[in-house]
Design goal:
about 15% strand, Rossmann fold, globular, about 250 residues, 7-stranded parallel sheet, alpha/beta
Amino acid sequence: MTTKELTGRAALVTGAGRNIGREIALTLASAGAHVAVNARSNRAEADAVVAEITAAGGKAIAVIGDVIDQAAVAAMVGATAKAFGRLDILVNCAAIRKEAAIDAMSYEQWREVLGVILDGAFHCTKAALPHLKASGQGAIISIGGVSAHTGAKHRAHVVTAKAGLIGLTKALAHDLSGDRVTVNCVVPGLINTNRDPNAALPSHHNVNRTLVGHLGASSDIANAVRYLVGPGARYVTGQTIHVNGGAYLG
């Protein structure tokens, strides 16, 4: 896409320092949006994304904060609105995807994952709502996970949290329809992201296969997000959109 269909709009992307979140931030900026790039603590990563956006002629800021911290989220949203004068798009991408067998999983491990994925989406949505409602063309996207639909070994916490995002999406679509805020969930499947070279692939990568014969790229997810927050998708809300090369047929 070569249009600037998001010109005049502003977005906050959580977990945007690397991989899918980073690509979403870059893609929304290429569509003309001003972008607040969130990272939990790695300012160097967030600043690098901001620098890439500004080098291409866009406008971006880094907002550092943990999405499980309600005060930090409020500060992030406030900084975004102050810098850009508005907030039209929220992308809940922050997540952790650790693996542990259920019999070895502590409650702290369980809560850590659900906290970032579900509580984080709740905090960010609540803080952004006044701005999204005022936009007249607000959009919320949460980034799900294919394992929420297929199940996965050693990922009870991740599967549960990502499945929760689907329910949250449907509920918010009802709650916010009168405010002209669309709410959707984009579900990546088997994406070739930058991983720790010493770490094993997630276990579900060894079970599921794509129909197209290769892994997806972060840009595949970012392009779906770009469409859903754009003017051509104002009739799309409450939906779970799978982008997985046929690894899962929902």
